[in-house]
Structures are given as structure tokens and as C-alpha cells.
Design goal:
By secondary structure, the chain is an alpha+beta fold. Helices cover 28% and strands 34% of the residues. The chain starts with 8 loop residues before the first helix and ends with a helix.
Length: 251
């Protein structure tokens, strides 16, 4: 006959400790579930708020959000402006090509190797203003637009839109101006070896690749909002990481 198994008070205490440490109590599970649900709710709310601000084009976004846009979304595009050579209908037969860049005081068109909307592709882009009201004190939106160059043969004077994508960079702007630092003219100085050509660079209110046979080296963007003037500088980098990744793709 098998003897009954007796459990001492010490063993009962040790078993109670073991079961308490082996899992979670119902209260602990409920508290964890509440915390997890709260985190999911906050994440969903933050994402919804971000998407609402994005769709509204930054109308209600803070100055920090707008600065983030100009720094993150556009900086790679502007720094990756490329001296993409195109021709025009007049000179196509004789094979004359010019760097594509059209820079005026309030807008510019260029080729970038770092598309904002189609990563890994080149695109023709435009940064400029659009008036949004009438009256003695006009207001503008600063808009960035793009069209991928895939299956598109670009020439000077043969593209006026429409663009495929756009984003509002700044809203309710009082004034927006662009300046370009690049080739101004070529001077010939007389030296010991005769006439030596020297290229002069300076800041300009307009810059055209067809005329200067080059693209700018630097850009200056000035935005006036609510009486406050902000100036952004951007250097066009010949060998930045975006251009390197475009030409050195790994398949």
C-alpha cells in the first residue's frame, strides 16, 4: 500500500512563491493592456494629425514644421541639381546642347537627380510662387513641382507643364525671391604668357544655363511672412551622395 504524500508548511510557502513568480496576475495583464492601448491610440492620433497637416499643405503647421520641409524634402533635390544638357528646336539639327537651368527672380526650373516624389529617378522640377488672393496686399504660396524624366525627351522651350506632383512649401507668403551664385562673365587678363581667361562669379537675380553654359553653384531663397524675413542658402554639390547613388547603382 502506497504511503500518502505529506506536504510541509515550508513546501507550501515555496510553491506559493513559485506560482506567483511563474506568470502574471490578472491585474498586471489588465494594466499592461491599458498601457498598450494608450500607446496605440497616441500613435494613431499623431499619425492622423501629421497627415492632416500634410494634406493641408502646412496651412496650420508651425514654423518648425515648415523649416523641416525645406530642409528635408527639398535640400536633397536642390543640392542634386544636375547640369543636364538639352537642345532646342532651332539648334537640334546642328547638335548644340546647353545645361538645362532657368532661374528667374521668383521661380526656377531645373533637373534634379534626387526626386522628392520618385526616389532613385531624375526629374524636371520647378520652384515658384502662385498668387492666392487679390487686392493691394497680395499673398502667395511657394510651390515645388516635379515631373519624372522617364520616357520624356526634354528640350528647351518645349515643356510648360503640367507637372505630375506638387507640394506647398510655404503658405501665406508676402514675398519670395531667388538669387543665384554662379558664372557672371569671362574676363581676359594680360599676363606674362599673354591673355589669360578668368571666370568671374557673383550673385545674380537671374541665371540661365543656355546663356551661361553652366548651372549655379549656390542658391539663396528669401521668404517674407508676417513681416519676418527668412533666408535659406543651399549649395549645389557636384559629387554629393544622391548623385553618387544615381550613377553607381547596384543591381
Amino acid at each position: 500500500m502506497q504511503r500518502p504524500y505529506l506536504v510541509t508548511a515550508k513546501q507550501k510557502h515555496e510553491n506559493r512563491i513559485f506560482y506567483n513568480e511563474a506568470g502574471f496576475t490578472l491585474i498586471e495583464i489588465l494594466i499592461s493592456s491599458i498601457i498598450l492601448a494608450s500607446l496605440i491610440y497616441l500613435a494613431t492620433l499623431s499619425y492622423s494629425l501629421f497627415m492632416r497637416l500634410w494634406e493641408q499643405g502646412g496651412v496650420k503647421a508651425s514654423a518648425m514644421t515648415e523649416r523641416y520641409r525645406i530642409n528635408v524634402l527639398l535640400r536633397s533635390s536642390l543640392e542634386s541639381i544636375y547640369d543636364y544638357y538639352v537642345t532646342d528646336p532651332v539648334n537640334e539639327r546642328i547638335g548644340l546642347y546647353y545645361p538645362f537651368f532657368i532661374g528667374a527672380e521668383h521661380n526656377m526650373e531645373f533637373i534634379t537627380l534626387s526626386s522628392v516624389f520618385a526616389k532613385g529617378f531624375s526629374a524636371i522640377a520647378r520652384l515658384g510662387v502662385k498668387q492666392i488672393n487679390e487686392g493691394a496686399r497680395p499673398r502667395y504660396q511657394v510651390i515645388y513641382e516635379e515631373k519624372p524624366l522617364r520616357n520624356f525627351y526634354l528640350k528647351y522651350d518645349n515643356f510648360s507643364g503640367p507637372f505630375s506632383y506638387k507640394i506647398i512649401v510655404f503658405d501665406n507668403v508676402e514675398d519670395f525671391r531667388l538669387r543665384y551664385f554662379g558664372v557672371w562673365q569671362e574676363e581676359h587678363k594680360v599676363g606674362g604668357a599673354g591673355s589669360v581667361p578668368e571666370i568671374v562669379y557673383k550673385w545674380q537675380n537671374s541665371f540661365y544655363g543656355k546663356k551661361n553654359m553652366a548651372i549655379p553653384r549656390k542658391l539663396e531663397l528669401t521668404v517674407v511672412r508676417a513681416g519676418n524675413r527668412e533666408t535659406f542658402h543651399c549649395q549645389i554639390i557636384p559629387t554629393n551622395v544622391f548623385k553618387q547613388s544615381f550613377f553607381r547603382r547596384e543591381f
